[in-house]
Each structure stands twice: as C-alpha cells, then as structure tokens.
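re: ur question from yesterday

yeah so i grabbed the chain u mentioned. its 687 aa long if i counted rite. heres the sequnce exactly as i have it in my notes:
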Amino acid sequence: AATGYPGYDSMIDKDTATVGRILQDNGYHTSWFGKNHNTPAFQASQAGPFDQWPSGMGFEYFYGFIGGDTSQWQPNLFRNTTQIYPFEGKPEWNLTTAMADEAIDYMQRMHALTPDKPFFVYYVPGGTHAPHHATPEWISKISALHLFDGGWNQLRETIFANQKKLGVIPPNTKLTPWPKDLLPEWNSLSADQKKLYIRQVEVFAAYAAYTDHEIGRVIQAVEDLGKLDNTLIIYITGDNGTSSEGQQFGTPNEVAMFNGVQVPVELQLKKFYDLWGSDQTINHMAAGWAWAFDTPFTWVKQVASHLGGVRQGMAISWPARITDKGGIRTQFHHMIDIAPTILQAAGISAPKLVDGIAQKPIEGVSLLYSFDKANTNARSTHKTQYFEMMGDHALYHDGWIASTKVVRAPWNMTAKATDPMQMQWELYNLDEDYSQSTDLAAQYPDKLKQLQTMFMSEARKYQVLPLDTSVLPRMIAPRPSITAGRNEFSWSHPLIGTPNGDAPSVLNASYAFTAEVEIPAAGAEGMLITQGGRFAGYGFYVLKNKPVFLWNLIDLERIRWEGKDALTPGKHVLEFDFKYDGLGAATLAFNDFSGIGRGGMGTLKVDGQVVAQHQMAKSLPFTLAWDESLDIGSDTLTGVEDGDYQPPFTFTGKLNKVSLKIDRPELSKADIAKLQQAQQAVDSGKE
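ran it thru and got these structure tokens back, copy pasting raw so excuse formatting
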C-alpha cells in the first residue's frame, strides 16, 4: 500500500522511462492488455492527470483495468483512458476471453497496416490473482478430473514428486514441514470443510487453465502472422507466490477479508457453493491451498522474506535464438532483470535521456546469457537482491539469503503493527538448500551479520526505509486526492466512474446526503448516488417512487431505510443523515482499532420530515469494493441490492443536485491521553 515516503509513493518518475517507452522510441508498436496496478489510485479518475496511465508511459494502446484486481464478469475496464462497459447485457462475457480477442485483433490490425514494424505486447490477465472467475465450462472440466480430492497435504507431496521428476528443482531438495501451528492438516477437517475447500481450489485451477488457454490463443495468433520464430515470449504465471488472502476458510467476497471478516464455512456452503466463481462472488480459496501450491517452499504471497512469497516459475520462448528447447535453468534472477533482457534481445541500449530528462540506471541485469545451452550451469549474473513487503524483509547475495522470521501470517490482515527492527533473522545457503529448509543463523553468525549489513545498505540506497509492518491501517492512510481537505461536495449533473481514490469516503465518520429531485406525474425511480456495489457499498435511490438508503455490508447483511409513502409529483428534498458513534480512524495512529467500524444512527427524511430512522450496529471499517466507483444519477458495474434493481438504474425523474457533508471525528485531549496510556501498556507487556 502506498505511503508518502520516497520509494512508496506509487509514482513512476520521469527519470524512469518504462520499457514500453524505450521500445516506442525505437520504432516499436507498444500495447498493454489487462491489469494496470501502476496508475496511482488518486490519479485514476477522468480528471487525470494521465501521464501515469499506460498511454502516458509509452504504450500506444491500452485495454484493461486499473487497480489490484477486478471482477472478470463486470470489470473496471478501460480502452486507453475511456471507461467502457462491453459486458452490459451479456451474462456470458468474461474479460479473460475478451482481452485475448482484443490483443489478437490489435496485432492483426498492426500487421495489416505496418507488417514490417516490430511490436511489444505487455499481456497481464487477471489470473491467477483473485477473484477466480472461470467460466462454467472450465470449472466443469477441472472438477471432472478430481485432482484435489486428496487434500492439500497430498497435493503438496504430488507437486514435490513432479517437480523432482521434471527436474525443475534439484534432486537433493527437501520438502519443508507443513505449518501445523498455523494451518490444519487435511485429515483433521470436517466433511463440510473438505467439500467447500475442494470446490474453491477446483475453481482456482479452472481459472488458471482458462487463462493459460486464452494466452495460448494469443500466441497462436502470433504464429498465424508468421512471426513466432523471431518473437521473444516471457511467460510468468502466479501471484508473487500463491496468495493466502482468502484466509483460513476461503472467502466468497474479498472485500470481507479486507474488512477483517471471515465468512463461516456453513454460510459459504449454504449461499455460495454453487455460485463459486460466478459474478455473484469475488472469491478466493483457503490459505492451505496457497501453501501447497508454493511447494517446496515455506510461506506465501506478502511474505517477502521467504521464497514461497517471491519465487515463481518462468518459461521463455524464442525459436530463432533458443535452440535448447525444453532446457531448464536454475540461476537466481529477479523481475528487475526482465527489462534489461528485452532491451538486449532487441539490440537497444538503455537511454541516458528521455524527453531531455536524465534517466536513472536500470538496476537489473540481462538473463540473455542463460539462453545458451553452454551456460546451463553458469553462475547467475544477478549477485545481490533485497526483498521487502509490509515489514518482512530479506537479502540475497551470491547463493545465500538472510530472512527475517515471519511474525504475522498474511491471512491475518488485522494484526497490529510490530517493530520491524526487533525481528529475528534466519540464514539459508540456497546453493545447497533450495527450499530454505535449514536455518544456519546460529552456525554462521558472521555471514548473517554480513547480509544484515548489506540489507540496510541496499535499503538506504533504494528507499526501502522506513520499514512498516502495518497492513490495513496503512491501506486506509490518507493519500493525495482531488477530495483532499474537503468535507463538503455537490454534484449538479450525472457523473459515473469516479474511483474510490478520488471519491469522498464516508467510512468511520458522520455524514449527510441531500438530493434535490423532481418527480414526474407518472412517478420515478433510479439511483441518486452510490459508491460500491454487490460486494460492499451504499446506495441512495428511489424505488417504485419511494426513497431508499441502503448499506450493503460485504454481501452478508444489508441495512435499509425506506419511506413508506410514495413521493408525490413535483419537487422534493431527500436526505439521509448518519451520526457515527466511534472515535474514527485517528485511533489507528495509536495502533488501536477501537475507533473504526462502529455503528451509528441513520435518519431518512423527505422534505424535512423523518420517514425512517434506526440504528446500524456496525459499519465497514476499512474499504468498499475497490473496483467499483462513485456514481451519481445511475449505477455502473454491479448494484448494492440485486433484489431492488439492476444497473444502470438511471434516475427517471430530474436530479437537480446531490450534496454530501462529512463530519469526521476529532480526538479530544482526553481521548489522546487514554489511547497513549493503552498503547504504553501494550508496549510494556502489561496487556
């Protein structure tokens, strides 16, 4: 999660031209399809600026989504800088297929127009990042194979045996122990748990197979153009190590997980089992599967200190250059080596100036040397690499890796921050211990100290400091935004597609919405203002001529205020006022969660008269659905209550104005003193 510190601000500066820009400047067609998690959330609205969008970073054509993930059924989708909705009215539409179609069409058009011009395609499908949205056909195909009936412990043994058989891990590799203190063994689970978890992993595998199939279609299109022989294809699949963010039970709703809520197994079976992977879920699998898929290593995505959280397989094809078809290479390399490899393959030197701006040196090294069979066993040219994420950190150097001991399981998103400088360290010799199975810290203290010192040197050099172990508080920390410093907002025209990063947040605060409307003689209905959708959010709308305000609490509960009487024709002022009961997000500065997610009193009014009023016992503490948006006058993507309406649900009356006033809690001196006292008690070990 981005912060204000240098190195964490989510900005790609002008002194760091992308590989797309470098290739574009050297005569290549450049395009980007799929995930774009590079544009800062606070620059993702139609107000721009657009220099941090793909089109501003050297890519002539972009077709994809902005953010960490999105629904593959109703995605947050853009063509260049314009949001598009090609899925409306098409329930079988899926982005995984659509983006393959788009990439194929683009390559064919460029080939028809400029057949001799080289091209670069950055192809980034949503898979296998959550949500795992495979088509019913792919789910049925994988389910029929019964690949996972034996559970995650057996799967681990099977994967390990296959890895050795294929030669992708050294023969002397040890399988690291199962973390019994963190994750249950398969044989200890109930029948219901096994049934649910098998369904989850089958959908995950179907998503992987589906994604792979569509990538195959794109590669086939390159061959059909007669260009495959001299095309370099770098294929990396995974999610920075498999993700355990589905928590211990898996989840039908990622937004629940990011609000610290686990959905019980019983409820998942009852409500979501048959819907798993459909547009009724933004699903993720149980953490046990993530650990198994990271065989033979320990840990999973988010854990930058251990190989299970950072190591992925990679396949490279270049028939005109690579003659060792099916050859295996085991040299240590890193993602920062991909751009230098592409440039060397293209015969292009890294530029010293771009648009007159001096460029930073490219830190990675090319792995082109490894393409030669003679270098199968050559030492890696990548000697040193730091790793860090959410406080977990490590330093690799010439076959050794020093790793901090993990203090927070990644599926525990609400854990309080700890002091990263007090972490214990482990030491591994990867040349002899491929899987990080044997800690040598006690045996080689001088080597450990050397690598610890190197880590701090690299951390200072590459702006890794300060280390921060917080998770959810860091995610909701204030960031730049066009709403910064504002507590009052008004809209006098319909507006759709404002992303959360540039929309006002009403979480952990008191607020008041006011809508000035005109109802025609025949009555009206439609959305006045909404943020979020099916998986979390709020909506203020008119339904069958009656005013409604509704909170969707992660698709598990909906709190509704509704007027009993229909609105008469003419002008009306509709209001919803919410008085928050908590101290607000400021308590997070004291490592205290007590101020967030609290309830409050909601009051719905028509022309100043109360028409509905009741308490809401709790609220969302951290986030709404991140791939949805703030919409005025209609609703895009998904609705907050499918039983009431389906998007776009355009308001059929006249919406003259919508306004919002937010009153965020401020800590009193007494509140601060109490929070400081509680924090000191925790730090001293008294609580």
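noticed a couple things. The chain has a mean pLDDT of 96. also The longest strand covers residues 570-580.
anyway ttyl
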